Amino acid sequence: MQGPHIRKIIALAAFIASLYALACRAETIQQPNGPPVGSVAPDIKVKNALTGEEAQLSSLRGKVVVMTFWAAWCPSCRQELPVLERIQEVVGKDNLTALAVNYRENPDSWGRLKKAAAAWQITLVDDQSGWIARHYKVSLIPHMFIIDRDGKILANHLGYGRSMNTELAAEINRALKVSATPIPEDPTAQTTASQPDKKATGEP
Q1: Which class does domain 4-201 fall in?
Q2: pLDDT band at 26 (very low <50, low <70, confident <90, very high)
Q3: Which DSSP helix (H) or strand (E) runs through 124?
Q4: Torsion of CA 85, 198, 125, 80, to 10 degrees
Q5: Integer Cα distance of 151 and 39 in angstroms
Q6: pLDDT tens digits, one per residue of 10-19
Q7: DSSP assignment of 54-100, as one string?
Q8: Mean pLDDT of the chain
Q9: Is residue 81 a contact partner of residue 202, using CB atoms and an 8 Å limit?
């Protein structure tokens, strides 16, 4: 028979696990925070975590920007990153920039992934202080914003699942409008050598 102390520990562990799952999955039924669709995206400075290169978001006007907030401990985030890499490969950097903003983690905690990311085309951004996240009112991850060529928020997505791929492809194609290779309905249908592999992202 379990004593009251053991039962309390089990209950606490279950509660912590539920909070972890909520933070990571960020259930899509919840209305996402952040700048509303149609508003101008907050202008922030992003720093490439690999090269140290800095750029203002506003300097990317004329391109579609897909910006997602992620963390190495989040399984849904690790599933989303290869999709962004595939989208970046298909569309090309002349038409689209994919920004993967790390959410409030010490860079040492995702060092293995940074090493693998040297071959990626998406841009890893360090936000250990949470400065960028605060500007976009991000508190749960993964959290993605699609910003059109005019610098306005076209879509705001909280959470990620493969069922979302068709919707994401349609939204990005709408943002691209012209002069770009359209994204297939399922961006994961094809893979390339430069796509993040499961070992690098920590997937089982």
Answers
A1: alpha beta
A2: very low
A3: strand 123-127
A4: 60
A5: 9
A6: 444 443 344 3
A7: EEEGGGGTTSEEEEEEE-TT-HHHHHHHHHHHHHHHHH-TTTEEEEE
A8: 80
A9: no
Q: Which residue, chain included where needed, has tokens 């140290």?
A: 52
* Of residues 55, 133, 67, the one with CA closest to residue 98: 67
Amino acid identity of residue 5, one-letter, is: H
**What are the sequence ranges of the domains in the chain?**
4-201
DSSP-derived letter for residue 36 is: P
* Residue-wise pLDDT tens digits, 70-87: 999 999 999 999 999 999
CA distances to 10, 18, 20, 74, 172 from 13, rounded to whole Å, are 5, 9, 11, 18, 40
The predicted model scores a pTM of 0.74
Mean of the pLDDT values across residues 57-77? 95
How high is the pLDDT of residue 45?
Answer: 95
Q: Which residues contact 60 (CB under 8 A, 6 or more apart)?
A: 97, 151
Query: Which class for 120: exposed (0-12), middle (13-18), buried (19 or more C-beta within 10 A)?
Result: buried
Residue 27, Cβ density class (10 Å: 0-12 exposed, 13-18 middle, ≥19 buried): exposed
For residue 56, CA distances in Å to 64, 105, 127, 157 come to: 14, 22, 14, 22
Omega into 142 within 30° of 0, i.e. cis? Answer: yes
